[in-house]
Automatic annotation (TrEMBL):
Domain Ketoreductase: 42-221
PANTHER family linked: DEHYDROGENASE/REDUCTASE SDR FAMILY MEMBER 7B, DEHYDROGENASE_REDUCTASE SDR FAMILY MEMBER 7B
Taxonomic superkingdom: Bacteria
One Gene Ontology MF term: oxidoreductase activity
Lineage, uppermost ranks: Bacteria, Bacillati, Actinomycetota, Actinomycetes, Kitasatosporales
Native source species: Streptomyces griseomycini
PROSITE patterns xrefs: ADH_SHORT
Identification of the protein by name: Short-subunit dehydrogenase
Biased composition (Low complexity): 17-29
The family this protein is said to belong to: Belongs to the short-chain dehydrogenases/reductases (SDR) family.
Entry's Gene Ontology cellular component terms: membrane
């Protein structure tokens, strides 16, 4: 049992897929790719920065002149994301005990502030729920939901104290509608969506905002990692760069949510307004 800085307790599951050992970002582990942040630059902490959406988002923010703190587990891929920037690498396993707390501490030690947190780390699992190993239920829920909440919990006080900041949560259309044979992933992302809504209300007047980014399928290693390719004809796969552009735009405009592509707001709206019709359409068109 781990006692977090927030006073909560939890039992993070081991990462069975990678057999990864708990990794805490230490001063020695943090590698700079350039000069220390020249004061005044806004700072973004991006998790999942070693691949896919997180990596593309990190590159978009770097192009926009931000100073970056990049986290993921794979140091080599983090270095690729950071190439040509002054980003600081903070490798961390967010499924490890205290992973989120240690990452937040290391990040704040580096720069003293975080203007934007992009919580992009996440994994999927696909298959009939009845066959899903219990360890995988825990793994998906822990990384996609719990670890994200713990990280936000650790970073938020510094944003509120500064009177500014934005938390960007990477949800999924699965969390809006519930996708067959992705039940636990859908549940985790639905949890994130409702968390975003509740937290946004709580933070009103603090200067800190919450953005929920809701992508449909995106062409990343996500599908290979979960062991089942994307096999639907639509929605079509978006590029990680297009999601990164939407994240950038949402942060620039202080938007509460952003769908990629934008028409993906529709299924959730139909389901909310007329669940019966939504299910009939689903049964017919899949
Ligand atoms: N691809 C899609 O179709 C899609 C659609 C909607 C939402 N999303 C969401 O978008 C986010 C990014 O996914 P992606 O598509 O970019 O997938 P991806 O290319 O597989 O990237 C996943 C990222 O999460 C990191 N990660 C995985 N386990 C971790 C752990 N235990 N600790 C720390 N970091 C860990 C990975 O780091 P390492 O590689 O270093 O382990 C990697 O950087 C996820 O939250 C996913 O649910 C994806």
């Amino acid at each position: 049992m781990t006692h977090t800085g927030s006073g909560s307790t939890y039992d993070p599951p081991a990462d069975s897929a990678r057999g990864a050992r708990p990794t805490a970002p230490t001063a020695a582990a943090a590698r700079r790719h350039g000069p220390p942040p020249s004061t005044g630059l806004p700072v973004a902490l991006v998790t999942g920065a070693s691949s896919g959406i997180g990596a593309a988002t990190a590159r978009r923010f770097a192009a926009g002149g931000w100073h970056l703190l990049l986290s993921g587990r794979d140091r080599r891929r983090l270095e690729e994301t950071a190439a040509g920037t002054s980003a600081v690498l903070l490798p961390a396993d967010l499924a490890a005990p205290e992973g989120a707390r240690l990452l937040a501490q290391a990040a704040l030690r580096q720069t003293g502030r975080i203007d934007v947190l992009v919580a992009g780390a996440g994994i999927g699992w696909a298959g009939p729920f009845q066959t899903m190993p219990h360890t995988d239920i825990d793994r998906v829920l822990f990384l996609d939901l719990n670890a994200t909440l713990h990280l936000v919990r650790e970073v938020l006080p510094s944003m509120v104290a500064a009177g500014r900041g934005r938390v960007v949560l990477v949800g999924s259309v699965a969390g809006c509608v519930g996708v067959r044979e992705e039940a636990v992933y859908s549940a985790a992302k639905a949890g994130l969506a409702v968390f975003a809504e509740a937290l946004r209300q709580e933070l009103r007047g603090t200067g800190v905002g919450v953005t929920l980014v809701v992508p449909g399928p995106v062409e990343t290693r996500f599908f290979a990692r979960r062991g089942r390719p994307y096999d639907r004809s639509r929605p079509r796969l978006a590029s990680p760069g297009s999601v990164a552009g939407v994240v950038w735009d949402a942060v620039s405009r202080g938007r509460d949510d952003a769908y990629v592509p934008t028409w993906l707001t529709l299924p959730g709206r139909v389901r909310g307004l007329t669940p019966g019709l939504y299910r009939r359409l689903l049964n017919r068109f899949g």
